[in-house]
């Protein structure tokens, strides 16, 4: 038994030597002696070699040997080695001058374009790392989706181009895969290929990527940094840094603070819209209730010249109060419904738009307050000295309300003026005020201070 095992291992060894030298006749002779020799090479436990004969032949560039072994055993194209779980296609893509072998392997097993080694790299990743642009283009033509595969670190082919300084491969990929998703893929750190190009000071790659209309220039990584922030941190005044600085200005790239400001602005607008919608809906509900159930109720019969269902207040001797209540309540209802309609209209919501909605709600709230004061005055009985109590309450309430509105308007007016002036002008105004109106504090001579310190207390 041991002799047969030694004999089979000896035959397999001879097969590997034939693969190493590309000796096709020797392989054919071995197959005549043992027709199962190739099967034994595939079975892992029967072979102590780390790679298959096809791996060896591909590595040595023996095209005819590769053709012959694949013709008899196509499964060899799917066998991975024990070193890095690399397929024969991985090895062919790693070595320049193996384009014909790559075509043979891809033609035999095109699905191996998606095979990953222990680092998660596919053959196209290996081709990019080693600068095999022609091989990369062949793989893209056969399996275009292979460009979207990622490594264990979440890297795409574009990331690998930047990390391995493969400018030609990057240009070819950008031209052949003009896809925004691929261009803006982020790795496990949230860095896109553009982030890495700026960090590595690859100015030509930065220019190539920024020239793409679909590239995201202001995207932030997991450290909340854009390409502008990364450039500021790594800028040392070199020629590459100066070129990158010009490119960032040319393509109007912005630091992260602008994006964070926009994000804060959107969050603020969303919160304001929610608050305005709640307030407007509440006022509309109250105004509708007052319209359907006016102060004092409605008549329940048709006696004494009135009709059932009409407002009792409208038949009062002083009909002006009812008219004022009706007008103020209608203003409150229409203005609040207008706010609701504008919020659900789908119009772009900006700060000025929110300001208009606020003004409309101020009108609505003021009309609701007026409606309440008039209504409470009507339903209050005379037995508690209606004239003095209600009139005084209304006078004080109106006065306080007007003062509150005036303070709010004054505050918004000041903020509006400060915004118009701008930060730079405000700084100049402060400096002018300090220079002309603030008296500088005279410095106390050093000798006086020393005498005060050393003078004994009497």
UniProtKB/TrEMBL annotation:
The keyword 4Fe-4S does not apply. Its main location: membrane. The keyword Hydrolase does not apply. The chain crosses the membrane at residues 274-292, 324-347, 359-380, 400-421. Keywords: ANK repeat, Membrane, Repeat, Transmembrane, Transmembrane helix. It comes from the Eukaryota. It is found in: Membrane. Residues 267-376 form the PGG domain. ANK repeats lie at residues 119-141, 189-210. This is Ankyrin repeat-containing protein NPR4 isoform X1. It comes from Spinacia oleracea (Spinach). The lineage of its organism: Eukaryota, Viridiplantae, Streptophyta, Embryophyta, Tracheophyta.
